[in-house]
Amino acid sequence: MRQAYPLPSKPVWGWHDDHQNLPVIAKIAEDCGIAALAVHGRTRTQMYKGEARYELIAETKCRLNIPVWVNGDITSPQKAQAVLKQTAADGIMIGRGAQGRPWFFRDLKHYAEHGVLPPALSLAECAAAILNHIRAIHAFYGDSAGVRIARKHIGWYIDEMPDGEQTRREINRLDSAAAQYDTLAGYLERLAGKTDIWACAYRQNAV
How many domains, the chain? Predict the structure, then answer.
């Protein structure tokens, strides 16, 4: 008797555009006992290039009896709902869309429940979340590894903010956790004189 294991799988469309075998692979996975699939809307050769596509995911979902989650280019709550509607997927998997904006999940949940975005977090609330995150990285990984790992997160956070690129380069030259934290904290404090909201592309012209 076949036993279902609580083990998910994450296939892609196929190897390349001329070899899109997602429905076949997904059915094999289900027959082998995979509990759920998180499908990325690109081929293996695409890697992270181009745009994710979803039509084959919808076809695959219709053929399976296990949950299917859709992944790839989910960068806004609005797009998340549109993709769920297009694919009839059971859920979504967020990756790069949440880099530098952990509040994305708050906005996603509210939009799914109410059809509108919640009020934006204040600059002070975002700054506090960022500093707490960097402190946690330093505490968990230690000074040496923590500083290196925190650099990419800081870059994601401040990339679209005023003077963000200049500050990122400055912070990347620092080797001390204390100096990294203090420089970031100083930058966030100075931001208050330049803007009162955190940059967010999906809030522009949102309804």
Answer: 2
What radius of gyration, in Å, describes the C-alpha atoms of the chain? 20
Domain endpoint, select from 98, 113, 135? 98
Task: Pick the closest to residue 199 from 169, 156, 166 (CA basis).
Answer: 156
pTM: 0.80
Tokens representing 122 are 């204040």
Co-location of 88 and 12 in the same domain: yes
Residue 85 lies in a domain: yes
27, part of any domain: yes
Residue 93 in tokens? 């998997």
* C-alpha–C-alpha distance, residues 39 and 48, integer Å: 14
Domain that holds residue 137: 123-193
For residue 107 the two structure tokens come to: 């906005």
Grouped pLDDT means (10 residues each) for the chain, 207 residues? 48 48 79 82 55 76 86 88 91 89 94 94 95 98 96 95 95 96 97 86 72
CB 77 within 8 A of CB 108: yes
DSSP string, 124-146: HHHHHHHHHHHHHHHHHH-HHHH
Report yes or no on 155 lying in a domain: yes
